Amino acid sequence: MTIIQLEYLLAVANYGSFSLAAEKCFVTQPSLSMQVKNLEEELGVIVLDRSKKPVLPTDAGLAVIRQAKEAVQAFAMVREVVSDLQNEISGTLRLGVIPTIAPYLLHRFIPDFVRKCPKVELQIREMMTGDIIRALDRDMLDAAIMAGGTSPEGIREEELFNDRFFAYVSTDHPLCQRSNIRIEDIDVRHLLLLSEGNCLRDQVIELCQAQKNIARQYSFESGSLETLMRIVDNTPNLITIIPEMVADYIDEKHRPQVKTLAKGAASRKITIAVRRTYVKRSLIDALKESVMNVARN
């Protein structure tokens, strides 16, 4: 039994496909399949049900996979300990970022991180919160930058900074004449929301105490905050909620449409989420430092 065999087994379990697992592991499918088969023969059990689409673990396979995860993590920890002793930050960091953060934060901290950690291969994927949680659980991501309070048990969140909410209103909206807006003054019938699956949508609904099934004048929903703001720009009497990191990039022409929300708790916490068993501590610390450096500026 080898670490390679266990890594290939976990890849098939994660992706549900021998061909996709082989592609992600940068090996040929016959080579990967042979290693998994050799593992099954050595253990004397079938660990994967190949008749299922996607490929699923057998009952015995589930038990083996649990132990394989621990073994692979322990193996990675050996490298991490040696890197720490050598005072070197290296390896691969697979990072997920939610769509309401990625366009406004990635370009700000990546140059600093790459400069300080030249031996780290940074792999970034923009993903919805639910997909990030599943990817962390399946060891398909190492860490994620996301809104706090959305992770289940087994995932640890480390706070980075606070991201306040602002209202963005149409120029002819009655609230546009105010310097700040009370939450209770927002007519949710004219409130534009992100589409289902965006955690910011749920946070805005909770903030405005809006019912998910309330009748709205406009039922348009989008996965892009930029799209929502352009609709607000060109449609009378609309409003949407945006985070501070988005407000920072609004030009002078549209700056008067950004309104402070008169509520102290109107914000979200931006966090780094990792599995509780994650071993690449030095990588996470370096990432956290780079993000917090730009957040303070």
Automatic annotation (TrEMBL):
Cited SUPFAM superfamilies: Periplasmic binding protein-like II (SSF53850), Winged helix' DNA-binding domain (SSF46785)
Keyword Secreted set for record: no
Organism superkingdom: Bacteria
Keywords on record: DNA-binding, Transcription, Transcription regulation
A Pfam cross-reference name: LysR_substrate
Listed InterPro entries: HTH-type_LysR_regulators, LysR_HTH_N, LysR_subst-bd, WH-like_DNA-bd_sf, WH_DNA-bd_sf
Signal peptide extent: none
Domain HTH lysR-type residue range list: 1-58
TM region positions: none
Family (UniProt): Belongs to the LysR transcriptional regulatory family.
Protein name: Hydrogen peroxide-inducible genes activator
Native source organism of the sequence: Alistipes hominis
Lineage: Bacteria, Pseudomonadati, Bacteroidota, Bacteroidia, Bacteroidales
